[in-house]
Amino acid sequence: MLISPSEVKAASYLGDNFDEQMLGQGIREAQEVHLQGIIGTALLEKLKDLVENELDEREDGINASGNSVYKTLLDDYISPYLAEKVQSVIVLPMTLKTRNMGLIKNADENAYQQATEDIYRVQRRFNTKADRYATQISMYLCKHRAELPELDTACGCDYFVKPIVGKTFINVPINLALGDSGCCC
To answer: Would the pTM of this model clear 0.70, i.e. be above it?
Structure first.
């Protein structure tokens, strides 16, 4: 994983006693589904390899001097994105569970359930923040495309972000997935 459960907790509103299994599942979904759709499979795999190499104390890890563009991408853009996206991903499963008898609400004798609309409002809030980070990731990828060969594993199209009025950028409905069949060409 590109971000640990403790890093998500430190960067979010989640308490220290939050269910580690649910948090791990949320991290995997945020990373392997949502982040992959922004940065593509090749770059995601490269980042995972660099993080793994660092954990194995190999010289070619994420902190190696030649990997500064990846380190900045991970620390300044991807980690904040994942912290917000994980919260968005887990807000429903931490409230509702699927069991043999169907969909049930989690309840604690000292906790009060919130209305479903309140849960969706919180989820939208986290998604909005994650979307802002996704835009920043896309802009970083555009700026550093020449230093990230993983972005040129497919057709080489320029379908990252589209400039609009002035210097403002927006995320296009991307499935960057460069290196995947989801390329825009």
So the answer is: yes
